[in-house]
Amino acid sequence: MACISELKSRAGIVDAVAVLHPTQLRREINMRTFRSAHREYKFCQTDLRLGLQLLNDLECPACSDGMAGVHIDANMKLFTWLRHRELWRQQHYSEFFADDASVQLSLQALDLATGSTRRVPDNICNGLWAAASDGQQRRQAQQKITGRCVATDARHGGPIAAANLVGSGEHYGYAFHIAAHNLMTSGLQQLHIDIMRQWAAWSERVVEALQRYQPPTSTQQQQPLHQQEELQQLQQRIQELRDLVCTGSWGAVRKALSHAHGTLHSQACQMLWQPGWTSGCAKTLGEECEQLFSYLSRFSGTTRNQSLAGSSDALTEAALHFGRQKRAKQSLLLVQRYKKFKEQETRAEAERQLASLEQTPPQEREQLLLMSVVV
Length: 375
What we know:
- The chain has helices at 2-11, 16-20, 31-52, 100-114, 130-141, 172-183, 196-212, 225-245, 248-252, 259-262, 267-273, 288-296, 300-303, 308-358, 362-374, and strands spanning 70-75, 80-81, 143-153, 159-166, 190-193, 254-256.
- It has one domain.
- By secondary structure, the chain is of the alpha/beta class.
């Protein structure tokens, strides 16, 4: 320190803080202050890119005419332990993760509209032995966030939106909330989910329940004031969901399996929900979420021990970095994809002509060959 002070004095460098506030104690730079300063710096850099440069890395520049395809999946590795850390802290970012209170309000509104009194966990892959299910429930009881449900662009693989799974498994309502609130307003045309066969039937029942729902009038006045306010909020959310999905635009959304995941389903399920068998459905890779999860899961060793706000901010910054890389490489990838498509189109046209030639009668085939020789 003495050497540094001596060098400053020789160079004529003056400590401005010491001159302006000579009696003020200097704050030391420890781990907590450095972490807070780094968070604020990262937030300012992101705000500069979003606000001034108008570059949103969560939006695809090639999908300006609407979202042609979106893949929604959940990652249970991105959980957060129940440690009660930094309960006072609020999240810096709100662009990627949906508000937890809004998501839970949508889930409660769906339960109210469908008449569901309890939310049954989706223990489809736990088997018939109760110990497997009990183990998952015990593990989730020690977690504040049990996972993250993420929506990605099915054509170009960029992140779009996400929601925290709070104290539960991968329920259908999380994907429904993301699709209704984040995707329908952006012109969603095609939706991919790994369990579309079950989810599509469930979503149809939910839409019918939202259309038929009538708010009670007699029992509401007999309830306490706080319950009346909660019921009014639920009824307002039911009306919002009804306006979003009970229109012709929701029925026009093509629903299909994710292509790579759907190859493991039964043949009957593939014929009904595989993109290659669905009319008007584009055939994509269908595992875009897994590509994003392979990057986000690298941060799980750190985010699982952070607070809710800290883990959400860290994953948001990671998703923004992933989207920034996608944006930088997108033009080159689109050119390569177009060249590959033209080669496949030329090969398919040649195979089609060859197949039609093999089905031609022998006399007509000889005439076509003679005409080709003359030409």
